[in-house]
Design a protein that fits this description.
The complex is a heterodimer of chains A (141) and B (373).
Chain A: H1 6-18, H2 20-36, H3 52-68, E1 72-74, E2 86-87, E3 90-92, E4 102-104, E5 106-108, H4 111-120
Antiparallel strand pairs in A: 1-5, 2-3, 3-4
Helix pairs in contact in A: 1-2, 1-3, 2-3
Chain B: H1 23-29, H2 35-49, H3 57-64, H4 68-76, H5 92-110, H6 120-135, E1 138-142, H7 149-160, E2 166-170, H8 176-188, H9 196-206, E3 212-216, H10 229-244, E4 247-252, H11 256-260, H12 267-272, E5 275-278, H13 285-294, E6 306-308, E7 311-313, H14 315-325, H15 328-344, H16 352-365
Parallel strand pairs in B: 1-4, 1-5, 2-3, 3-4
Antiparallel strand pairs in B: 6-7
Helix pairs in contact in B: 1-9, 2-5, 3-4, 6-7, 8-9, 8-10, 9-10, 15-16
The chains are: A mainly alpha (141), B alpha/beta (373).
Chain lengths: 141, 373
């Protein structure tokens, strides 16, 4: 586990205590995106995932907490990939309110830890389209 | 058939323990499937059981969108048709899910790591590996240190050809026959907690004619105190090859011991290696040019000079000397350092001035500065 610097840790602790549900919601969205794709960055999350008034504290701390848990890790600043549009380990966020900011790009560094975190929080990381098939022939009409 | 070995210790809930098989038992359990189907399952097992990116069976099943029980039944050879009780093959959707899963996982795992530039030497190594796979023979590759042999196979060839049939194994220094066998067992996903003859047997059982063994740093097997250990290791390799008819690539930095014994103790192995691939004794011009091009630098012409802080030198000569005496790493490290120099000026691209500045700095660091005179 990576120890966050004191001001960041204090904020993360406060957000985890007061807005735990929202924090876990954003962390789940990050982990799900991270599992589906090779990388994940703030532009992958819908802007309305949390209400405007909570957005800044909750979303930034969701990234910081996952990073400190070593579930995600930032791509190195020397990483460039034209086809992925990642330059210097960053990618332009095309969400309207992001104002084309260059955000740090992360990759899920430990999928097993992500699953362990999800289990600890009683969250399912199932794919939405993998519900068990219903045995229709036995349904009483 | 599942492993019956007792698990020692209290920490039993590891991802590896959720895969209660070894590669040799899997090969036996899935022998009724066509090679491409069993190889897909072997690739899934190899990926998830690898301590660098572990995943439990439940987690892998969740990612694939299938039940863990399906994976268990398939890998145990118990996947049967409920009516006829005949062994059932994995569905096309399951195999497709494995392919997609492994593709995403491997791309994510490599994302952000240093990119491998396909140099002419690297391409020769890929061709040699393909030859070994196709012809099911032993291929010898040898060349000096730091010309990109290990990177070519470990970072490029093995991950891109790991359909469950390419096993990359790096030999450890001063380890002898036991060390070699243990390293091979670990690479194949077999528990190494056994004696040497039993591990050799299990390695043979885990190897099919479709398997390609890439054994790197084989020359290290000669650095043991027991005389004759090296020949013992080589003979075990020959035995594995003879009994399984797999492809085998043996990569050496120094081939002197093998060459010296090629008409004596190692004649049998040497003659099995029809394809022999000697690599140049220093990185070729093409190799260096490919790397420079990847970083946006043209190969410097003769006479092209660069002056940095009052010191003038020829980049071409500098590169030639580094390639000759220090290998590719010395050049790529100068490129990395050049990016640092460039970033100080706010640029994301490097120039020959940055490269030479990095070179001068590194050369200065390598000399002792006398501050008393």
């Amino acid at each position: 586990m990576i120890t966050l610097s004191s001001p960041v840790a204090d904020t993360a602790r406060a957000v985890a205590s007061y807005k735990h549900e929202l924090l876990v919601k954003v962390m789940t969205a990050i982990v799900k995106k991270g599992l589906e794709h090779t990388y994940v960055f703030p532009g992958d999350l819908p802007e309305d995932i949390v209400e405007m008034e909570h957005r800044q504290g909750v979303t930034s701390n969701a990234w910081n907490t996952l990073r400190s848990l070593e579930i995600i890790e930032p791509l190195p600043p020397s990483f460039n990939n034209e086809s992925l549009q990642i330059f210097g380990g960053r990618k332009q966020n095309k969400n309207p309110s992001a104002k084309l900011r260059w955000n740090i790009v992360y990759r899920l560094s430990n999928p097993s830890a992500a699953y362990a975190w999800a289990r600890a929080n009683n969250i399912s990381l199932d794919k939405p389209d993998t519900k068990p098939a219903i045995q229709t022939e036995l349904i009483l009409v | 058939m599942t492993e019956t070995n007792t698990i020692v210790g209290s920490n039993v809930n590891t991802p590896r323990t959720s895969w209660p098989w070894s590669r040799d038992t899997l090969v036996q359990n899935m022998s009724y499937m066509p090679p491409e189907e069993s190889e897909a399952l072997l690739a899934l097992f190899s990926w998830c059981a690898d301590p660098r990116h572990p995943l439990t069976r439940d987690e892998a099943a969740n990612r694939l969108g299938f039940s863990p029980e399906t994976i268990y039944q398939l890998m145990s050879g118990k996947y049967r048709d409920p009516d006829t009780r005949e062994a059932k093959r994995p569905s096309a959707a399951f195999l497709k899910a494995i392919k997609e899963f492994l593709s995403t996982e491997s791309r994510r795992f490599m994302l952000g790591k240093n990119e491998m530039v396909e140099t002419p030497t690297a391409k020769r190594i890929y061709t040699a590996c393909d030859l070994a796979r196709e012809s099911q023979t032993v291929v010898f590759i040898w060349g000096p240190s730091h010309i990109g042999k290990t990177w070519a196979v470990e970072r490029y060839y093995a991950p891109r050809n790991n359909h469950g049939k390419t096993i990359y194994c790096r030999m450890r220094a001063a380890s002898g026959l036991m060390g070699m066998v243990r390293a091979m067992a670990e690479a194949a996903g077999i528990s190494n907690k056994s004696n040497t003859p039993d591990l050799i047997r299990r390695i043979k059982n885990a190897t099919t004619p479709n398997t390609l063994w890439i054994l790197d740093e084989v020359h290290l097997l000669a650095n043991t105190y027991r005389k004759g250990s090296f020949f013992g290791c080589m003979e075990v390799m020959r035995e594995i090859y003879d009994e399984t008819e797999c492809g085998m690539v043996l990569i050496f930095t120094i081939l002197d011991d093998v060459k010296a014994a090629s008409q004596q103790e190692l004649q049998q192995l040497w003659r099995r290696g029809v394809h022999k691939v000697p690599l140049p004794d220093m990185p070729t011009r093409g190799d260096v040019a490919a790397i420079l091009k990847h970083h946006g630098l043209d190969f410097p012409d003769k006479g092209f000079k660069v002056t940095v802080k009052g010191v003038t030198d020829e980049p071409r000569e500098c590169i030639r000397q580094q390639a000759r005496f220090n290998g590719l790493k010395a050049i790529t490290e100068r490129i990395r350092y050049a990016y640092k120099m460039a970033s100080k000026t706010g640029s994301e691209k490097i120039t020959w001035e940055n490269f030479m500045e990095a070179h001068f700095t590194m050369e200065k660091q390598a000399t002792i500065q006398k501050d008393w005179d």
